[in-house]
Amino acid sequence: MGEHNKAACGRENNARFLSRGCGIGLTLVARWVLCMGAVGALVLTLAPSSRAQNPDAQPAALSKLRAALYVQATRAPLTNLEGEVNHLAKLSETCRVEHGAQACGLSDKPLESGKLEDRYAYYVKQPVEVHSKTQGVKIQRRNWEGSAKAVMSDK
Predict the structure, then answer these.
(1) φ, ψ for residue 104 (rounded to 5)?
(2) Per-residue b/e over 127-148, b at no fewer than 16 CB within 10 Å?
(3) For residue 63, what are the CA distances in angstroms to 7, 106, 117?
C-alpha cells in the first residue's frame, strides 16, 4: 500500500492526488502563495496614497517661491534664472494636480509655448500680479507718521 500511495501522488489525476494525503503540503504552499499575493496587492493599493507630498508644491509655499523669483528677475537676466523657472514650473504643475489650478494661482488654460519668456510669464509673473491685485497692499497710517517725521527732520 505504501508503493500505491507513492504512485498515486505522482499521477496527474487531481482527485486521487488530494485524497491520498499528498495535497497537505501543497495546500500550505498554495495558501502561502495566495497570502503573499494578497499582501502584494495591498501594498500596491496603499502605496500611491501614502506617498509623501512635496511641501514646495503646496499653494502657500509656491506663492513664496514665485514672489522670490519675481524679485530675482528684476535684478538678473531671465536666461540666468532658467533653472529656477523650470523648477517652479514643475512644482506648479504638481500643485495643479494635487490642489487644482485656481488654488495654485494658475490659469485653467495650459501653457502652449516652450519659450523661457512665456514660461516665466505663465508660472511667475501672471500669478504674482493677479495675487497682488486681489490681495492689495496693507498700509497703515500709523507706520507713516514716524517715517514722515524722520523725513521732515532730515530736511
Answers:
(1) -95, 5
(2) bbeeeeeeeeeeeeeeeeeeee
(3) 76, 11, 19
User: Number of structural domains, the chain?
Assistant: 2
Spans of the chain below 50 pLDDT:
1-2, 5-9, 11, 18, 47-51, 150-151, 153-155
Task: Report if residue 87 sits inside a domain.
Answer: yes
All cell numbers assigned to 125: 509673473
Residues 59 and 34 in one domain: no
b (16+ CB within 10 A) / e for 90-114? ebbbbbbeebebeebbbeeeebeee
Query: Do residues 119 and 83 share a domain?
Result: yes
Cell 505504501, residue?
Answer: 2
* Interval 80-94: pLDDT, tens: 999 999 999 999 999
